[in-house]
Amino acid sequence: MSLKDRSAFWLPRGCPRLVRLREVCQLPGMRAVPYFLWSDDDQLTEAELRERLRVADPAERALWEARIMREARYGDVWKYLTLADVLRDWELIRRHLGRMRGFWEFLLRGWRDDGLLPT
Length: 119
Hints:
By secondary structure, the protein is mainly alpha-helical. The protein has six helices and no strands.
């Protein structure tokens, strides 16, 4: 399997390329309250969630980034985060990923091994 074929496996449907450091993949059907904010304490609208992803404090921002990466389907993660966001805050995000930590470490390590991300 070629590098191009393997990287296409990880793309959410509708995103043209794997590494878009400054763009969020916009797919149709975004809801007012994202489905992955299932707790009654976290009933934020999409706009409120996006505001929390823009806060200056990296520790607070990482909590919300990790919530998305932990609870949302893989393809939906890229509606809210960019690869640059994940790489920038990775050390703070990873401690909050719970059961999904291995999955995200596997992906990032694989992308680095394949030369798609800097080492």
